Amino acid sequence: MTNDELIWRIAGGSGDGIDSTSQNFAKALMRSGLNVFTHRHYPSRIRGGHTYVEIRAKDDPVKSRGDNYNFLLALGDSFARNPQEEAYYGNEEVKPLTENLDELREGGVIVYDSGLLDASEIENFDERVEENNWHVYDLDLRGLAKEHGREIMRNTAGVGATAALLDMDLQYIEDLMTDAMSGDVLEANLQTLEEAYESVKEDYEHTHDLRAPTGTQEAEQVLVSGSHGIAYGSLDEGCRFISGYPMTPWTDVFTIMTQHLPEMGGISEQVEDEIAAASLAIGASHAGAKAMSGSSGGGFALMSEPLGLAEMTETPIVLVESMRAGGSTGMPTKPEQGDLEHVLYTSQGDSNRVVFAPGDAAECYEQTRKAFEIAYEYQIPAIVIYDQKLSGGHQTVPEDVFDEEPNPDIGSVVTEEDLEEAVQEAGRFKRFMYDDDGERGGVSPRSLPGQKGGNYLASGNEHNEVGHISEDPDNRVLQMNRRMAKLDSIRDELAENADHQAVYGPEDAEYGILSWGSTKGVVEEAVDVLNEQGHSVKAMNVSDMMPFAADEVTAFLESVDEALVVEMNATAQFRRHVQGQLGRFGEKLYSLLKYDGNPFEPREVVSGFESRISGDADLSQYNVRIESATGD
Amino acid sequence: MSAFNAIGEEREIDRDEFTPEIEPQATWCPGCGDFGVLKALKQAMPEVGRTPEETLLVTGIGCSGKLSSYFKSYGFHSIHGRSLPVARAAKMANPDLEVIAAGGDGDGYGIGGNHFMHTARENHDMTYIVFDNEIFGLTKGQTSPTSPKGHKSKTQPHGSAKQPIRPLSLALTSGASYVARTAAVNPNQAKEILTEAMEHDGFAHVDFLTQCPTWNKDAKQYVPYIDVQDSDDYDFDITDRGEASEMMQKAEDALYEGEVLTGRFYHDEDRPSYQEEKQATGDMPEEPLAERYFDEDYEWERSYDLLERHK
Predict the structure, then answer these.
(1) pLDDT for A148-183, tens place per residue?
(2) Interface probe, candidates A220, A267, A399, chain B, greatest B C-beta count within 10 A
(3) Separation CA B240–CA B232 (nearest Å)
(4) Residue A72 — φ and ψ, nearest 5°?
(5) CB-CB neighbors (< 8 A) of A361 in chain B
(6) Who's near A584: CB < 8 A, 6+ residues apart?
(7) CA-CA distance, A43 to A95, in Å (whole number)?
(8) Alpha helices by DSSP H, B6-76
(9) If I label A228, which of A135, A289, B71, B268 is the partner at 20 to 30 A Cα–Cα?
(10) 0.90 cut: is pTM over it?
């Protein structure tokens, strides 16, 4: 077994502190100079039920959860013993062990809490261990934790055991504990940690080869999720108003914003529903604040109506759509990329909005900033669409990604001095002035309530230049053309800085892989593997969904013989969008689709590609499907 | 220097300033009660002392929604039922604005009922005028949430089986700190009530009875009305929730029996507005958010300084 990567999985019951323990452990690995990527798997249930967090650590960049894993810490589910729950869910006591064995690599390490789990209850356990050359360490973590503090500290005991088995320096973990806790709790945790470490070092014979990789990253890194990227990007763009209604996984970004807004002089509002949430963002923006809202699929459906209102009244807002598996309420805690068409086309009338789909945490930051900039400059709603995987999964990002100046510019808003000179009609400001010569790119001057000389009516009905409702056919055409012209202007502006579309791999590659959103990193890792195996492949991850990055995608597709479009949904929404926007390439495109609630792993993309190109890969072991494009 | 100089301008204000110089004027039917709301609102503005440009009128959809077209101020003509969420956020972004929301009974008590309940409970400092004509007008005469039981329309040909909404009781229960009912046929009282509602520091709900001569032939029911404050028969303490509630129920029962009781029903001057509550918990800045974007000296905090917890 190579020691170039550790993929550590901690499994247990929801509510047992798996998440916080893994956060700390991931940070400890980062501090030792490694790159880290985390993946959360949890049920839609508050306590109990099988949950795990996977941490992949490598000296090289890590862009995905990787293929399978090599270290299991099975803690036991303290809520599984609840007899009332047993009636519903069956006896789940051994789940942290049984549920995870299928994906453990050959030669992998298992540490399990013999205080809660009884391996003898598991069918064929010993045979499987032998077959797969697994190295099993049974430790009474629960007993150890109880001895030094409280039962809940068996997480800490598990981490201590892990550190001993991987030859890790305990100092990183101890430092993190010291930062996070104090007093007796800290003392008890440190004792538990050290005791577990020592006893594993001394009392167990280490039969495995796996050791923690050596980290050499010198640049300061931070461990953040895509939701942090979005929240921090918003804050740096001067967003100081957020309104929302809780819904998984959108709640991630909503709570991060809420945590910081009051101390940063902003306002966060939890409201009665998503229609209100988006309407509040519109109201705040109309009155002169930089505002955002957001939701996940079902909640975003309710925002369809205010989204159209923002388009028609040309009120800048940023909405976040954090996708989970649909339809309807679908699978609340599982990722999917099934809301693309929903976000692109929802609401009545012709679509007039901007949609960005960032592919990793750094892109979440950068593209959210871009979304605000465009929204406020062009007076148009902008949507940032990402998914549950990117929302909650953490990854190491260079600190300097966030070392950017704030941008409190409110966009194309006039001042009172401008208003003194401005064209008025019938005592009102020409807020929706035609753009006769096209010089303003469809954008009209915007005043704010309270400004002298700027009064006008913002109406969701078709309206004339001062905002009065109008059904005049000529006015209708002029206003429609002006509003629609904004998308062309935005496309031109985005094209000037076209690095939103992440291109990866050799430029002259024969084949392409096209993806969007959070599948970016998985595809890039698959590209590396494929090229190592002698294929000639490159990838493009598309972020600019509306206006669509037509030129760049066209150039990419023209340069390859064939392209595999990888996405997490059943109906190939992105591939259809590409075909629809470009009106060609149907004969070159094949889809690799996955929609089982789990994100792609690199090997699935590799096999998908091989299955398409050479036809000899077996996809039957995976929940993926290859589909050819129809039409142009 | 403020970026919003129209706010707080002290000068003589003429009601005619609120009339937009644009043709054609109101598309309401002849005899429509909505004219009464528009007139009363224009009359109240000079009393309150707010200029058109420091006033934001947010309306819903339908005949009532057109109020923002015929009233010159900053206006926002939103969508059916959504005037309140738009208005309350505008008020939060710039609390110095005079914010008024308006809509009809279908708009406000039907599709927007949820927002009504929550805006009232939060007690935002704003005025909410509901044009209550017991009918859907612009969609041509369907039963509304305030239509009487048994009301026949194209959508309820056998007569509505539903009890009408009780707007005053609903506002009180939800937490509105000022609740009144007035009628288009009583311009003086309407002006006084709207003035008081705007001056009130909290959520002021005004159920404004408007006749619909086209679709609701029972419009005549609004005459004659009785002003509960002017009549010795209705003695109650408008600062007492219990007494106010009892009086509201009396008025709501009586309305469908032809006795129209209007006036002020509840007034709590002590309850802090939502803005005050939120500022007290540290969740809202003292200065208007909107001003900050024009303040060149304001130091914007950076996310970079939040990164400690991610290291």
Answers:
(1) 989 889 999 999 999 999 999 999 999 999 998 999
(2) A267
(3) 18
(4) -115, 125
(5) none
(6) A632
(7) 13
(8) 34-48, 67-70
(9) A289
(10) yes
